[in-house]
Design brief:
With 439 residues, the protein is α+β, with helices and mostly antiparallel strands. It contains 15 helices and eleven strands. The strands form two sheets. It has a six-stranded mixed beta sheet with strand order 1-2-6-3-5-4, with helices on both faces. Helix 11 packs across helix 15. The N and C termini lie far apart (59 Å). The model has no long low-confidence stretch (mean pLDDT 93).
């Protein structure tokens, strides 16, 4: 039968979208482990979320350097032996430092899990911090840091965090190669002894999980016992500056980076999901208002985005783009106009329907694989969400209407509270037009 290509396929709304986060099992050593185990392939991924992240650093990059250093060698194997064994068994490791925790992940073939997991855990339990490997780590971090600091986007992002959180807040710290060079083995051992403990661990095991994989974890972890209470989580207080606009000079920069931040609410606040809808309408997908106006209509930039970032203690809408320096003030003016429009006019029903489908499509991806579900479970430790947050979010998106969103926009999208940073070659930046003060 011939396909009628002149008629587009029907578009229907999503039906049931839900995620029931599994109850954790308790290992014999007292650790909690969540399992997302309906995978089809004979592979697995174990992620250990260890309390101790960027907020706990006593000096810049301490948590990152420590997390790298634990794999430089342990009491049983050298760095080279660890790397060779992990590679031989077809496994790989990953790590990521968050605000209040660090995630250590091991991905393995199920048939080799009983061989790779002991190596992985020995590195976390019995690191030796060899000098040579530590110096190599520092050099790698210093090079990455120096490279990043040359980019206007990085410069703008760091500066906006200083304006938004205040100079002394951990998120406002701007690591330099000099900071990294100053790190010592004592910094590593101090951070390790403070946080890398059994009572600070939460485990998430994903993939094709059977009793065999669970037994392997149980056996390997059984001797790693808690020696006290879990380390408390830190939520440092933000102390925003009064400065709402800052221009940072980068001599010779070809284009400018613009970053804007507007304070909102933490993830658990009842208005958070509605704000996510608003941020998506504003600049959260390719058909957003900022893209339609600033990219498609005006041609000021190749792309501009807005997103809502939420932590357990605060949240903000962030807007960012890179453009020719001559367009900076126009980009900022048009961004403010779009924010004001959201406060003045209800979102048309068809546009709202498109945005809802976009957000629900993103949520559906969480359900695609056990590894995506595991990452969602990990968000409980990284961002302070709760087990039913996924389902609450789905329902909030479905129930939201234009009237509710208009009320939320009027309450939160106050452009007088919008902090702005431009990183560029100041010599190429036109003078701020007087009309900007009226927008």
């Amino acid at each position: 039968m011939a396909i009628d290509r002149s008629t587009p396929p029907p578009v229907s709304d999503f039906r049931d979208i839900s995620l029931n986060v599994p109850e954790p099992i308790t290992l014999t050593n007292g650790m909690k482990m969540w399992i997302a185990g309906n995978g089809e392939d004979e592979i697995n991924k174990l992620t250990i979320y260890m309390t101790g992240g960027g907020f706990q650093e006593k000096c810049p990059m301490q948590a990152t350097a420590c997390s790298m250093s634990v794999f430089n060698g342990n009491k049983n194997m050298t760095y080279s032996e660890i790397a060779e064994a992990i590679d031989y068994y077809g496994a790989w490791r990953a790590l990521q430092v968050y605000d209040n925790c660090t995630a250590f992940a091991l991905s393995s073939l199920n048939e080799n899990f009983d061989k790779t997991l002991p190596i992985f855990i020995d590195s976390l339990r019995f690191p030796v911090f060899p000098d040579n490997e530590f110096e190599l780590n520092k050099r790698q971090l210093a090079v990455n840091c120096a490279t990043a600091r040359e980019k206007v986007k990085y410069i703008a992002n760091k500066e906006i965090l200083r304006l938004y959180y205040g100079e002394k807040h951990p998120l406002a710290v701007d690591p330099t190669p000099a900071h990294i060079s100053a790190l010592t083995q004592e910094h590593m051992r101090d951070f390790y002894s403070s946080y890398y403990k059994a009572q600070n661990c939460n485990l998430v095991l994903a993939g094709r999980i059977t009793d065999k994989e669970i037994a392997t974890v149980e056996d390997v972890m059984s001797e790693w016992l808690p020696d006290g209470e879990p380390s408390p989580l830190l939520e440092p207080e933000a102390m925003p500056t009064n400065q709402m606009l800052k221009i940072v000079n980068k001599d010779g920069a070809i284009q400018a980076a613009i970053v804007m931040m507007l304070p909102t609410v933490p993830r658990r606040h009842p208005d958070y999901i509605k704000l996510r809808l608003l941020a998506t309408v504003l600049g959260g997908y390719f058909g957003s208002r900022l893209m339609a106006n600033i990219r498609e209509d005006k041609g000021y930039t190749y792309g501009i985005n807005a997103s809502l970032s939420g932590r357990s203690f605060d949240g903000y809408i962030g807007i960012s783009t890179e453009c020719d320096t001559q367009h900076c003030w126009n980009v900022i003016a048009e961004t403010k106009k779009e924010m004001v429009r959201l406060c003045d006019e209800p979102i048309p029903e068809q546009e709202l329907k498109v945005v809802k489908r976009h957000l629900l499509s993103d949520l559906v991806k969480t359900l695609d694989t056990p590894f995506n579900i595991a990452a969602y479970i990990g968000s409980m430790f990284c961002y302070g969400i709760y087990p039913t947050y996924f389902n609450d979010q789905v329902q909030e998106i479905i129930d939201a209407n234009s009237s509710d969103l208009l009320d939320v926009a009027k309450h939160y999208l106050d452009i007088s509270k919008l902090r702005i940073v431009i990183a560029c070659d100041k010599n190429s930046l036109p003078e701020c037009p007087v009309s900007m003060s009226k927008i």
